[in-house]
Amino acid sequence: MAYAVVTGASAGLGEAAALQLMEAGINLISVSRRESQKLKEAAHSAGLTYVHFSCDLSKTQETLSVFGKVLDQVLSQEKEIVYLINNAGVVNPINTVGNLDPEEIQSSIQVNVTAPILITNLFLEKTKDLSVKVNIMNVTSGAGERPIQGWSIYGSTKAALNLFTKTAALEAESGNENVIINAFSPGIMDTDMQQTIRSSDQEAFSELDKFIGYKEKGMLRSPSQVGSCLVSLLLAEELGNGQIYYVNDLLK
C-alpha cells in the first residue's frame, strides 16, 4: 500500500498531481489552507483513503504541529512507500531590492524554503528506524538558476531548495537507502501564480511583457499535463537521487 502527501494541493500543479496519484491507486493526504472538493470526490469515487489537513506553511509552529499529525496518520497505516511532494510556493514579493516588503520577504522564505526543509526533516526523523521507503519531490523553478530582475527573493528561495535537495540526497545515500530526494522544475503553467506574475509592475519586474506573451501566445502548459509528468517521474522505477528534473526535458 502507498500513501502520498502533497502540499499546496488545493489548486494548480498540486491538485493536478494529487488527482494523478489517486488515479494510480495511491492514498492521499492533502495539505493546504483550503480543501479541494475535486480531490475529495475523486478519492470517494476511487475508494481510496483521503485526508485533508489545513495548514498555513508561513507559520513554523503550525507547520510542525500539522505535519506531526500527518505523519501520525501515515505511519499508523500499513504501507510500503510514502511519497511527499513539497509543492506549495509563493512568487511574491515581486520587486527590486530596496523596495521589498519585509513581511513578504519573510513569508516567501518560510513557505518556499523553511517549510519544505522542516517537513522533509520531520519525515526522515520519523521514518529512519522503519522499513518504509520515502520518495520526496521538491517543486523548484528555473528562477533558482539565473538572476531575474524583481525575483531576487523567489529565485533565492528556489536556489536554496535546490541545494538542500542535493545535500539531503547525498546524506541519504550514505545513511538511509530507503530515501530518495529529488527536485522537479515544472516550467511555465497556466496557474494562479502566472496571473500574479502578469499583474505585477513593469518597473518591479522587467520580464513582465515576456510573461504576458506566454499567456497570449498559448505557451503555458496546463497543470494537468505537468502534473501527469511529475507523477510519472515520481513513480518511475529507475529514479535518480539528488537530481533536478526539468519538465522541458521530460516532455520533449
From TrEMBL:
<comment type="similarity">
    <text>Belongs to the short-chain dehydrogenases/reductases (SDR) family.</text>
</comment>
<keyword id="KW-0963">Cytoplasm</keyword>
<dbReference type="Pfam" id="PF00106">
    <property type="entry name" value="adh_short"/>
</dbReference>
<dbReference type="InterPro" id="IPR036291">
    <property type="entry name" value="NAD(P)-bd_dom_sf"/>
</dbReference>
<dbReference type="InterPro" id="IPR002347">
    <property type="entry name" value="SDR_fam"/>
</dbReference>
<dbReference type="GO" id="GO:0005737">
    <property type="term" value="C:cytoplasm"/>
</dbReference>
<protein>
    <submittedName>
        <fullName>Short-chain dehydrogenase</fullName>
    </submittedName>
</protein>
<dbReference type="GO" id="GO:0004757">
    <property type="term" value="F:sepiapterin reductase (NADP+) activity"/>
</dbReference>
<keyword id="KW-0560">Oxidoreductase</keyword>
<dbReference type="InterPro" id="IPR020904">
    <property type="entry name" value="Sc_DH/Rdtase_CS"/>
</dbReference>
<dbReference type="GO" id="GO:0006729">
    <property type="term" value="P:tetrahydrobiopterin biosynthetic process"/>
</dbReference>
<keyword id="KW-0521">NADP</keyword>
<dbReference type="InterPro" id="IPR051721">
    <property type="entry name" value="Biopterin_syn/organic_redct"/>
</dbReference>
